[in-house]
Amino acid sequence: MGELIYALVTICALLASGLLGTVEAAVSTISRARVEQLHKDEVPGSISLLKVLDRRPEHINLLVLLRMLLDVTAAVSAACLALSALESTVMAISVAIVGMTLISFTVVGVFSRTMGRKNPYTISLRSALLLSGVARILGPIPRMLIWAGNLLAPGSGFRDGPYATEVELREMVDIAQEHGVVEVEERRMIQSVFDLASTTARQVMVPRPEMIWIEEEKTAGQATSLCVRSGHSRLPVTGENLDDIVGIVYLKDLVKSTYHAIDGGSSVKVSEVMRPPVFVPDSKPLDALLHEMQTDHTQLAILIDEFGGVAGLISMEDILEEIVGEIADEYDDFEIADFEQVGERSFRTVSWLNLDDLAENLNEALDTDIEFDEEIDDQIETVAGLIAYEIGRVPLPGSKVAHKNLMLTAEGAKDRRGRLRVRSVLVEVAEASEDEETSEEDE
Predict the structure, then answer these.
(1) Which residues form the CNNM transmembrane domain (predicted)?
(2) Helix, strand or coil for residue 278?
């Protein structure tokens, strides 16, 4: 009697597992656009199927969990059946392992999934109502298990679990590109959409040191000038310091407030025209952030790190560029030498050139004895850093500073994200005055 029960449990578990495998393959394959058309045609079951597709990853996770449960049940039952039928324990376990592997692979792995892929819409429509009902009852279980699994796994894990259909969709896109259905660039864009879920805002943000901002007590005219110089149409507004972001000022609001002003907007404060800022954690996935910004009609968000400080900012353009790709401009093809002489006492250097290397190159080219103070050497490493130190903010192309007998002019253009970057620095060395030369000789 016991052997009969074990046999029935094994057979029923395998058949049920195969059925779930068929449904899983079908639900993973169907297109939402096609199901919406079926709903317009009033096909029975299409409403329930649309609800399943609204939360497709959760339903796939549930099917995988139930299938695993049935596979384990079938394996244990088959082992008990073999142990009761055979005298040798080793032989019984070996027969159970080999037999279950072959049957499970054939029935669940090949036959059931093949049937699901051959008739995906018919199977999905017939199983949608039952699947929705089961998910309503057991849905929280796979969510909790996925959460626990992500805690154990290194890295951030997958919000919807590793069983979602992204890999299969990626393969479908690759196959479509191979057969000429989609172009190479279209394939890359589709793949980029998939990558949004695993990319955080921190990875594409404008980091804090590169942010262009304005203080709230500045005037609208000054803010307009900064927008024009920096190429940005939106600027964060700071209070006491950069961690105190009090608003976002839009260029179009500045233009409205200064267009009819006789004084050029000097009487209008930035705080009067700024908008409330939007703060989001820098660990937020890009797909969720994009949806949130679209819903709230937000173009710029301030990113906060785990300690509550400002980590950087991100715009809608930054996220969209992750999909459509980077756009090169004429500046990207312009290669800058580390150090080159462009005039009798004028030189162009890359912005990241070390100050010690700058002094060495200038001394060699002009036969002088230029050196930087110890305070500068301790705090600053690069030429661009020296400009930032002198002006007290992030330098923009066109920024000029004088340091001793050096005139430094920042040069640059928009990078591939549309942000103005200082790429090179024009260094002009003034001739030493006669008094300076005399004092040097006396020394």
Answers:
(1) 1-186
(2) coil
Pick from 413, 435, 431, 433: nearest CA to 422: 413
Angle between helices 316-324 and 184-195 (to 10 degrees): 130
Residue 281 vs residue 135, higher pLDDT: 281
Q: Which domain holds residue 171?
A: 167-198
Are 127 and 184 members of one domain? no
- Smallest Cα–Cα separation from 396: which of 375, 415, 416, 377? 415
H/E stretch holding 38: helix 32-40
DSSP code string of 87-113: S-HHHHHHHHHHHHHHHIIIIIIIIIH
Say what angle helices 383-391 and 355-366 make with each other, to 10 degrees.
110
251 has a pLDDT exceeding 80: yes
Q: What is the CATH number of the domain that holds 376?
A: 3.30.465.10
Determine contact, residues 238/213, Cβ cutoff 8 Å: yes
pLDDT digits (tens, 9 = 90+) for 136-188: 888 777 677 767 766 665 555 555 544 455 545 555 666 666 767 667 666 67
List the structure tokens of 149: 């699994």
Return the SS3 of 342: coil
Instruction: Identify the band that residue 435 occupies on the pLDDT scale cut at 50, 70 and 90.
Output: very low
Residue 241 DSSP code:
S
CATH of the domain at 261: 3.10.580.10
- Do both 135 and 100 map to the same domain? yes
DSSP 395: -
pLDDT band of residue 334 (cuts 50, 70, 90) is very low
- The token pair at 26 is 């079908």
Q: How far apart are CA 43 and CA 45, in angstroms?
A: 6
